[in-house]
Fold these 4 entries.
Entry 1:
Amino acid sequence: MSEKKRILLIDNEEGLCRMMEAVLLDSGYKVKAYTRSFQAVEEFVPGDWDLVISDIKMPGMDGLEVLQRIKAMQAHIPVIMITAYATVEMSIQALRKGAYDMLTKPFEPEELLYRVKNALTQTELIEENRELKEELAGKFRFENIIGASDGLKSALEKVAKIAIRDTSVLITGESGTGKELIAQAIHYNSPRKGKRFVAINCGALPESILEGELFGYKKGAFTGAKESRAGLLEAADGGTLFLDEVGNLPMNVQKTLLRFLQEQEFLRLGDTVPTKVDVRVLSATNSDLKLAVKSGSFREDLYYRLNVVNIHLPPLRERRGDIPLLAAHFIALQNSKFGLKVKGLDSEAMAAVTQYDWPGNIREMKNVIEASMAMENADHLTLPVLAQFIEMPAEIHPASGEETVEGDYSAAMARFEADYLKGLLARYSWNVDAAARDAGMNMATMYRKIKKYALRKD
């Protein structure tokens, strides 16, 4: 036993209590025994124990009250009740109050150990399931970020590390790769998550408007400024400002932004008194800012201020293994939104979308799925419908595996997980310990997955 499980034992019959304590200690458990139920409950600290064993019939505070009080302090801890009077009514009452199991006196030490092992195993499975859900949520999905390819996994691991650190981040990648979703993931996993996330596309506004939008202006600062107005930096005070396509910032705005990043203050247009705010700045670009710095169109000092940490998002053509997951996700969204029952893509359609290079990346894929579902009458998206929206590969190789790829997200994730683990185990020559470490799983979870998906060494 790598780590001793901690058991709290309560029984007013001192001889039996000491016998159970000895049996459990000899089996490698850490045990603390009480013969007074009041004292046991009074000294109970949530989180200190993995299992409680309590007699039911005790003077003062009986076992059912012990059960109720301990469950109020630590709801998920398993409790085994011991009784010499195991009536159906009493058993039902104990189970309704949250008891995990009932043990009837007299019992052999082997029976005690068997019940204890079962209770602790069940608790471990519940805890592993919770940890696995958190792991998948944290590593493979931040809200609507779908996928688990190596490139995306690397980016999300970096997001998890830097989200809590109040530093500037530059997110790079082609148009449509999900840069704003990454920025949102950083914000909503940071201490600023309770404040606003404000985004602006620096390439969507003309230069004459952009400066006023970002920094605000005083009444009379220019023709048409009939009243003072706060900019987006003030709107994001305490939160996060996301500058999309930051490479399009004109030089005069770059200068003002640089001052803000250095001093945490700026001047509204037409103002002489600086405005101070507390804002984290995240930025993104689909262009090469290093080339822009060399050509003189982007300030070098601003580049280094924005690019304290860089997160690069790979294009969809470099993470083809995520395409079935993304397709299933977008189909599920449309089904939910419009009450549709499209099951997924047929095998030819899946082969086509997997082989297509998606120059518009995830944004293009989302639009194509939505358009195809508007035109499709069958229960699966088909090749002729998809061909209306994307250029078909010259030669489509049949998709391996199932003839159809269902749109249910859970099923798609299960298919992905099985393939992912099989590839990982092959990479480590079926060294399960090494594969588990790489995947961020514990050994028990890895073995459970191997059994679940019936994985075999080829």
Entry 2:
Amino acid sequence: MNLHSLGKAVRTAIRFLERRPAAGRPRPTAPRPAPGRPSAPRSAAPAGTAAPARTAGGVSGKYPGDFTGAASAKYAPAPNGKPEPGEIVWTWVPYEEDHSQGKDRPVLLIGSRGRYLLGLMLTSRDHDQDDRGGANYVDIGTGMWDRQGRPSEAKLDRILQISPADIRREGAILDKKRFDAVATALREVHGWN
């Protein structure tokens, strides 16, 4: 058994234990997901509290807009069932031109600011030969986040602010070497620490 498998087993056990109702209390019922959409976010609301309301756009509350400015890229994945920098997760990504629309995409978590996680959208489209934006992408290769095994690139020119409640599922943990390549590019493009 490798560390990745062990970490996955621990996260699964934690999620199972978090969802068990306390003795004597009925199990809360969850709303059914819309057709074609993943089920619930990876962490449920604590017992006795309401789950966050979801907008038509797929995020809880209103999307706060893309992050601007500088922050610190931080590599801190942990097998604890919580989304953390260094992990690739699936979440709703609003379109740049209309934040009320978007789609579920893989996102590399790169840091945090206040109550939001900061992330970079991943794409399987190759931008190396693209005159318009090749410098805004970093190759990160293949991983378990893409079922078809396609190479991915992290998009540097748009930094997403993501509520942890809006994370749908984990895709993988990116190794530190590839994460450091993305962090170096963020320092060059955005002046991050």
Entry 3:
Amino acid sequence: MAKNARKKSGRGLKIFGCIVLVLAVAYAAIALWPAPQNFALDNPMMKDGDMPILIAHGGGNREFPDNTLEAFCNAYSLDPDVMMETDVSITRDGVVILSHDTRLDRKTNVTGYIIDWNYSDLIAQKVDFGYTNKTKSQVLVEGSELVPFTNPDGLRVTPLDVTYPEGVTPRDPEVFLATTLEELIVTFPESRINVEIKQSGEEGLLCLSAILELLEKHDAWDRVVLASFHTEIYAEYQRLQQEGLVPDTFMCSPGTTNAAIFYALQLLKLDVFFTEGTCVLQLPTTYDIEIGGKEITINLATSALIEAAHAHNIAVHYWTINDPEEMRELIELGADGIMTDYPHRLADVYAEYGSAQ
């Protein structure tokens, strides 16, 4: 009896060993399998040379008011190759305007949701986007005063303080007027632009539809990349690509959930299974998660992650980097893009390496 038990035990161990061996071989094969090219064409989001792309967050929103044409002109005057990062929402009359918030309370001298305003009224009333008001959940704090924007030196600025590209003139001598996405695309016809859709649900999808019309109208597919933290918007990006409703040059980046999937798969050497149509990962350098009541910080700024993304022809951009030492670390790491509120500060760091970019 004992002899039979030993035989059965031996057979069980052999079977278990075979299963482990098969799994190990399969894992090794998967890990060595060539990564799919998630973006099939030359990737405009990859860095141009040794230096990462200089990306002006909101146009460089610590130097000039956030998401205004004037801020982007300021960044362009520093470096014509600058990439522009902006946030957008659609108005009641169907115009896509630049705004980090879906409400107007924090950055203007009026209040309310953008979807409840007509763009024509914003212009007719000369609504000023040159403020940094105190808000809670995007709503102006009751009784608080409006706070005009000031630059890093603590000085008020006007549209006349900007260096404009050739052929571009101030829209108003005092007011930072609402800026449309079309204005941005037309004013900088060669610039790369990152566009994040801020509205969600039906409003966000309506905004996306209007953006696609602009990209088609101005043939800007190969220089505008779309982003969103809303899963339904990113899912729509994927559907459009899968059904062939956008050209091969259409570019998008995943939100938190899908970026996390890539991070986990590359850790396990299983990123061959990441097949989503995306051209760039836009990431913070670290991300905090809570596991079992304990907060854990995950480091996303690693050479392994960047190398894995590059194997998929996916670029890696980091946000929002305002510390010069952190900028240097990302340069050495091989990041493709660095997004900052201070374009001049990042340009100074690049100059240390003997390059404007």
Entry 4:
Amino acid sequence: MTRLPLRFAIGEARFLTVAEAGPADAASLRSHARQVARESDFLNAGPGERVLTLQAQVAFLRRLRTNHTGFVLKGTIGGRLVAVLSLVRPSQPRLSHRSEFGLTVRAAHWGQGIGRRMGEAAIALAAQHGLRKLNLRVRADNRRAIELYRTLGFVQEGRSPRSLCVRGRFFAEVMMGLCLN
């Protein structure tokens, strides 16, 4: 059984701590979302396009815990937030066996295995929460993310052309899924 927090060696003398985010983390999660939106065009929202108010972020985190509709994991190095992974489960009974998987890692920490560690922890926790299917969407030209998701066991299930428009240019999205036992 996976128990949080988890701690992983990242490079020499640095450790990634993976823990569940709660309402007290709302401000740092908002700050993280703003920062990663500035660092990458691969996300669904760019700078200033979609950041919850502090009150809405707190309410969202409370709702996840109260209704058991998912969780948010935070990845920290030396107490500094570097990654966030969310699993949000629909409330409808016919859909409640699955969850939407979303991962962001600060650009300064790309390529260090943080996304893989966060993903492994989330998948183990998802199975413990009774989830049977994880879904995600990723921009089709985001090769590094697609490869990461493949190493975690996700498979491509579809492709949606012209799904995102970034600065007037259209991009396809790949839909990926992971079936859990």
